[in-house]
TrEMBL record:
Designated name of the protein: 2-oxoisovalerate dehydrogenase subunit alpha
EC category name: oxidoreductase
EC number: 1.2.4.4
Family under the similarity heading: Belongs to the BCKDHA family.
Annotated SUPFAM superfamilies: Thiamin diphosphate-binding fold (THDP-binding)
UniProt xrefs under PANTHER family: 2-OXOISOVALERATE DEHYDROGENASE SUBUNIT ALPHA, MITOCHONDRIAL
Coiled-coil regions, chain positions: none
Function: The branched-chain alpha-keto dehydrogenase complex catalyzes the overall conversion of alpha-keto acids to acyl-CoA and CO(2). It contains multiple copies of three enzymatic components: branched-chain alpha-keto acid decarboxylase (E1), lipoamide acyltransferase (E2) and lipoamide dehydrogenase (E3).
Keywords: Oxidoreductase, Thiamine pyrophosphate
Residues in Dehydrogenase E1 component domain copies: 43-307
Cofactor(s) this protein requires: thiamine diphosphate
Length: 372
C-alpha cells in the first residue's frame, strides 16, 4: 500500500506546497510558522537520523542488546511532535526517539534501557509530559485513553482556553491496530468523547507482516466505525503531519472528542536490529519510499525558501557531534549496582525482597572474585 486518493499532502515529493480545496484549511497553519521553526523541523529530522544510525552501529558492535530504528519516519514524528502543546501528554510506542528529544528526554536514557542497565522508566513530569516507552504492542492506547478520561474528570480540558486546555496524543503502528487494546481504546474514547488524538504511523510492516495482510481497507477508515473522525495523511510530509495534528489536537482539547490520524510512512530499515527485512521485502518497494524520503523533500522546500549550503552543513555537523557524544557516553556506561533491581518494589522494607537481595549477594560472592 502506497498513497491513496484520500492521502492529504501539503508538500509534494518535489518539495512544493500543494494548494487545493483539501489543503486550504491547513495552509494557514503553515504560513504562521516562522523560518526558524521550519528550520528546526529539518534540524531535528537530520540530527536524529544520524543518532539513529549511530545507535544501530552501537548495537552491531555489542554495546546494546537491541535497537529500534526510526529511519524514514522522521517527518511523521517531527511534525506531530511540534504540533503538541507544552501541556499536552504524549504516549509513545517505542520508536518515537525524535519526539522524546523534542520533549527534552536525554537520549542516553533510551540507550540505557536498550543496553539493559535500567528498568526503562522516566518521570513524565520531568520530560514535559512525555510518557514511557511501551513494548507491549498497543497497550499505550488504553493508557492514553484512561489518562484523557482523567483530564475530563479533573476539568483540565475543554474550558475554552486553548493555551491551557490539555489533550493527549498516542502513537502506535499498523501492527498495533490488530490488537484488541487499540479497539478497546477507540470504544472508550468514542464513548467518553475524550480529548485525544490517535496517531497511527503506518510504516507498512508489522515486523514481516505487510499491512495489506492485516487490513482490506485503509486503516484510517476503521476509526469511522467507532464514530471517530479520521484522516489519512502523507506521513513523509512534515508539514502535513504538523498542521493536521495541530488542528486535530485543538479540536480534541476544545471538547469535540477524539480524532484519528493515519500517517502513511515507511520503515526504511529493520523492525529492530534482530530483524532482516531483506527476507520479506521487495527492492522496488524500498526504492519507491526512498524517493519519498521526508528529509530530502523538506530540504528541497527549504532551499526554495532561501536556505543555503552553510545551513545544511551546520546541521550535518550537529548530527556528527551528537553521534560522537552518544557513542562516548555509551562506552562510558557502567553496570548498575546489583541492589538496583530491589529498589522501589515496595514503599517500605519487605522481608521477601530483603531475603531475595541477600540470596543474590551470596550467589555473586560464590564466584571467583565475587562476581558472576
Amino acid at each position: 500500500m502506497a498513497y491513496t486518493p484520500a492521502t492529504l499532502q501539503l508538500l509534494s515529493p518535489a518539495g512544493e506546497l500543494v494548494a487545493s480545496e483539501e489543503t486550504a484549511e491547513y495552509l494557514p497553519l503553515i504560513e504562521a510558522l516562522s523560518d526558524e521553526q521550519l528550520r528546526e523541523f529539518h534540524r531535528q529530522m537530520v540530527v536524529m537520523r544520524r543518532f539513529d544510525v549511530e545507535a544501530s552501529n552501537l548495537q552491531r558492535q555489542g554495546q546494546l542488546a537491541l535497537w529500534i530504528p526510526s529511519v524514514g519516519q522522521e517527518g511523521a514524528q517531527v511534525g506531530s511532535g511540534f504540533a503538541a502543546k507544552a501541556q499536552d501528554h504524549i504516549f509513545p510506542a517505542y520508536r518515537e526517539h525524535v519526539i522524546a528529544r523534542i520533549r527534552g528526554l536525554d537520549l542516553i536514557t533510551i540507550i540505557e534501557m536498550l543496553r539493559g542497565i535500567s528498568h526503562g522508566g522516566w518521570d513524565p513530569a520531568k520530560t514535559n509530559n512525555f510518557h514511557l516507552y511501551t513494548l507491549v504492542i498497543g497497550s499505550q492506547a488504553l493508557h492514553a485513553t484512561g489518562y484523557a478520561m482523567g483530564m475530563q474528570f479533573d476539568g483540565t480540558t475543554a474550558t475554552g482556553n486553548p493555551d491551557t486546555d490539555e489533550a493527549v496524543i498516542v502513537y502506535f503502528g499498523d501492527g498495533a491496530t490488530s490488537q484488541g487494546d487499540v479497539s478497546e481504546a477507540l470504544v472508550f474514547a468514542a464513548s467518553y468523547q475524550t480529548p485525544q488524538v490517535f496517531f497511527l504511523q503506518n510504516n507498512h510492516w508489522a515486523i514481516s507482516v505487510p499491512v495489506t495482510r492485516q487490513s482490506r481497507t485503509p486503516l484510517y477508515l476503521r476509526a469511522a466505525g467507532f464514530g471517530i473522525p479520521s484522516i489519512q495523511i502523507d506521513g513523509n510530509d512534515v508539514l502535513a503531519s504538523y498542521a493536521v495534528t495541530a488542528a486535530n489536537l485543538d479540536a480534541a482539547r476544545s471538547g469535540e472528542g477524539p480524532r484519528f490520524i493515519e500517517a502513511l510512512t515507511y520503515r526504511m530499515g529493520a523492525h529492530t536490529t534482530s530483524d532482516d527485512p531483506t527476507k520479506y521485502r521487495e527492492p522496488g518497494e524500498l526504492e519507491f519510499w526512498t524517493a519519498n524520503d521526508p528529509i530530502i523533500r523538506f530540504e528541497n522546500y527549504l532551499r526554495a525558501q532561501g536556505a543555503d549550503d552553510a545551513f545544511f552543513a551546520e546541521i550535518a555537523q550537529e548530527g556528527e557531534d551528537l553521534a560522537a557524544d552518544v557513542r562516548r557516553r555509551t562506552l562510558a556506561l557502567e553496570a548498575p549496582p546489583a541492589d538496583k533491581v530491589f529498589r522501589n518494589v515496595y514503599s517500605e522494607p519487605h522481608p521477601l525482597v530483603q531475603a531475595q537481595e541477600r540470596w543474590l549477594a551470596d550467589y555473586e560472592a560464590s564466584f571467583e572474585g565475587g562476581q558472576s
